[in-house]
Amino acid sequence: MGVALTRSAQWTAAGHGAKTLEVTPLNEAIVKEIIMFVESFIYKYPQEANYVFVEPLEWKTNLDPSAFGSGYAVSGTTVKSEEVDKNGEPLLYLSVPQIKIRSFGQLSRMLYIAKNMKLKEAQACIEANRNPVAKILGLDYNIISEEIGNSFVSNILDKITKDDDSESEIKMKIALQLKQLDLHLLNHSLKHISLEIRLNPGTVKNDIELLKQFSGKGKQTVLESIEYTSDYEFSNGCRAPPWRQIKGEICYVLVKPHDAETLCVTCSKEGVFLNGGKTDDEGQINYERKGEIYKDLVTLLKEKSAIFSENMSKQEIKFSEQPQKDQPNEAPKEEVAITHKASVTSRKSTQEKNRINLGRSQLTKRLEPSLNWRTSVSSKESRNTLRDTQVEKHGGKLEKSRSSVSPGRAQLIRKSVEKIEEIISDSSSESEEDEEQPDHRQEANADLPSEYWQIQKLVKYLKGGNQTATVIALCSMKDFNLAQETCQLAIRDVGGLEVLINLLETDEVKCKIGSLKILKEISHNPQIRRNIVDLGGLPVMVNILDSPHKSLKCLAAETIANVAKFRRARRVVRRHGGITKLVALLDCGKHSGEPAQSSLYETRDVEVARCGALALWSCSKSYANKEAIRKAGGIPLLARLLKTSHENMLIPVVGTLQECASEENYRAAIKAERIIENLVKNLNSENEQLQEHCAMAIYQCAEDEETRDLVRLHGGLKPLASLLNNTDNKERLAAVTGAIWKCSISKENVTKFREYKAIETLVGLLTDQPEEVLVNVVGALGECCQEHENRVIIRRCGGIQPLVNLLVGINQALLVNVTKAVGACAVEPESMMIIDRLDGVRLLWSLLKNPHPDVKASAAWALCPCIQNAKDAGEMVRSFVGGLELVVNLLKSDNKEVLASVCAVITNIAKDQENLAVITDHGVVPLLSKLANTNNDKLRRHLAETISRCCMWGRNRVAFGEHKAVAPLVRYLKSNDTNVHRATAQALYQLSEDADNCVTMHENGAVKTSFSKYQPMVCVITKPCEHGSRAIGNYIENIRHPGDKSKSFADHNKTVT
Amino acid sequence: MDQKVLKRLVESISKSVNSFKKSEIECFIRIFHNVVGRGDVKLANVGLDRNTFRVILHSIFGMTDDVLMNRVFFAFDKDNDNYINVKEWVKGLSVFLRGTFEEKLKFCFEVYYFNGDGYISRERIYDMLKNSLHQQSPEEETDEGIRELVDIALKKMDYDNDGRISFADFEKAVKEDRLLLEVFGPCLPDAKVQWQQRIGLGEIFKDLKRNPC
């Protein structure tokens, strides 16, 4: 207990007579522990409780004599216990206000009597008896209790042998108990201390500086003012006078919150509290503590000022987007700093401080936009020697968080403003680009590589040197491995990016060249790209494109090509007129008349054009930029460059064209500029990348029939077919197969491909290829399958099995193509057998459940030939459990293509009477009738066919009439599509077997329509379609003789049943 | 000036200087003549003294560094007689304005090495770079900074690690990175002038003709 009391308990200032325990959480905890010990003593060790202390514990009490009850003799102002020692002296003697107690038993009772004044009494007791152990056990025992372990045990034995009486044994036991209590108290207080926040001058100063930044007039600030009472700072960072420093006080601050009087605050190592304030006359501070101790200034102020608390939380929210990613890196660093100071700080407060620091750095940036902020920090660093570790770390952190905060925040603002535009101006082909991802920083506490420091030194020369020094530093910086992320980020983290971009705005050509050479390299890093854009580097580079120096133009264009890999950058380029300037670079022939004067730092015109194309390629990934390139007259220039034979030039040119060809406008222009010819020519190049881009461009352009013909006429199909044999380069293979797919939409091209044996090769590519390739291969096969010969080839090469296998995929584009191809194959009865054997129909049928309408429609179309050509089709269809219901329900879809395809499927299903009965039960008639009011000719045609088919069962004819399907059908006759007419005529014929329907048709002028207005049409259609003409004839007959209707209806019924 | 003498002079100079047309050479001779301001004296024996030349370097080619301007003067003054005669003038200008890369390389190296042993020593580099840092920090720090800069430059250019830069070193470094041609300070007309000269050499000297210095 002694040790705990002397070492851990926090006593007020030494050397002032009676010491008192401070009211701190720690002391309170210690006293409480002691009380618990004493209170339980009487129960745990009844024998020892009777032990009489060597000396009484004596102190001034506040207890009233009247509180003592039985067991005590109370007389006026004195109380004596009835319990006495050997000599008859009472063990408790109270003579107001002095109390003397001589046993644990009495101590326990006293505490019991004291009730809620326990704490005060115990504290008074401890304060008055600085060495209770000595008083209780005598001086020699006091010494023992200071010792520990073995020596203590041996001492006990010693004592026992020496005294050998019961009293010393009891003493021993008590001594042991006290010893245990002591240990317990020490452990306990350690726990408390570890929770305690120890402030040091560094953290206090940081807090105050931070708050100063946020202070001032106005509602937004957190405080009106905050200042030190003393301007003088001691070398250890404290501002308190030395005699107060002894007490752990660091400095005194006058704080004026918005909503309270000026507060005079003491910052000490233990925490922050209000003091007695500054006396006006002498300027002296009343150092006495006047309030609670808070863990730091911010907590105190939050307590004292509502406005402070409110505004502070706003600030925190503002910057809270950042800390999450920064903290993990910085927290360990902070910890290092703190353990260095040998004080234990809770993690929580560390993070809080971090957040404040972030806020601060943000602010620093706002206040000092120039580069000077850095020097101001470093000068502070050098001023304070003692706080080196702390401040230096903070300085480093400042720098880091500064550059990390700005991009994030800037992005946020821009994003919200221009989000919509971004979405619009987006191109479909942006999948490969790097979208804005969170910055990742180098591990702050990891050992920084030596490059970091070397680069930092070089950046110093860039900042502080003249042109000569700058050029040397730039050349030297280029020697670092700039492709390595460490170096790239090091340049940024030491503030090099700002300087490099600043250099671009100077007049010094050499500096600009040097700077661009570095920027060009490091802008391969996605993070750096964003930083460059955030620092406003792009407009400067765009301006450089106007420079008379070709090498400058080149470098600027190349850097733009690297930076413009994400859409915000591309937009910036466009907004600053960069596209026009880049297009102008392409015009390399313009100056050819000039003498070939090769200046020192110059490069060739071709190179300029190449760099321009490179930058345009990057930029062309945004829709708006494609437009801008076209408007700036880029297409003819690109077409001209395409005639060159430099691969370096061709790749970016073709790349740009390929990006742009996604636009209709471009395709027209590309045709007009005779670009296809050159694309085809370059397919024969040796360069795989060039081949890839050419094939890709053809793929994009071949949507148009004329272009497809051009490709064939220029002999492009053969190289495409031969490129299929090289399957190692998957990107190129995808592009080539894509081009083949689109080209094979034209029949003549398919014939050529067959000649080149491309179909066999394509079948070979159906397995073990990535999906991008498969989609194109299957698409191409689907087109080829439209011809009988090719279907035979595919079957012979064993192409059906892999195609059917692909029906289980999930890629939507692939499924659309596969179903189409399988459907096309199913037209051949022989192929159909294979498909049936592989259970392909079931797979197709289950694709009707696919969520995507394109897949549904495509699968439905594919099912039609399957049902047509399958043996026992009716039986097969019925075997699909729930299949018919599924099909009928698809009539509820709102996609016209799906509806048309499903109608076609139903037409085929209904050929089987049994199945027709089933779908009738599923309510196909009302669903079809509901669809009748449509303008879509494709749907009309298939719908009419289905209706005529469905009329074959039961009273469906009547039902169609009841569901008002007849009148709309009559109107189909006004359509311009002969297929619709034919199908409608058949449907009307079937419907006309019901007398009521005939009436409806008559009312809607069917006869008139078909005879007068569309008579020529009817004549035309009757020729090719014998069946159709008969149908028309029949139904006209039916209408003319409605009287016969019931008879013929009855006849019909007879035949059916 | 006697036309015949002039013609003869042009002829003789044009044999050794290829990059200028005869008309241009004539123009330069006239300028030289104007600047020297003593048309009557035999041209072969007079020349530009250092100060006049420096004024030209400063006003036309935008050079500011005194040390380097002196150096350029000595590089022009092939016969070391402290005067630039008319032949040296035209020859020097041909390198200066239209020199090939190799010619300029040699010229710059000559300007930089100066003490005649064919090497640019560490001390020489220090001398040339000593004004290259803006005086912000105390002198000692600047000094330290310059020493480090010299180290950086040497590390970059001293391929054979003998602590000095030989012509081979210089050539190799500059060929690798042309920015290093004027590594120790500007000694060629700066890029702006180079670009202007495409418009016409005469333009540059127009001012000079009008008011000879």
From TrEMBL, chain B:
Residue span, EF-hand domain: 64-99, 100-135, 145-180
Pfam family, one: EF-hand_7
Name assigned to this protein: EF-hand domain-containing protein
CDD domains: EFh
Gene3D superfamilies: EF-hand (1.10.238.10)
Domain of life the protein comes from: Eukaryota
GO molecular function: calcium ion binding
Keywords noted in UniProt: Calcium, Metal-binding, Repeat
Keyword Calcium set for record: yes
InterPro entries the UniProt entry points to: EF-hand-dom_pair, EF_Hand_1_Ca_BS, EF_hand_dom, Recoverin
Organism: Bos mutus (wild yak)
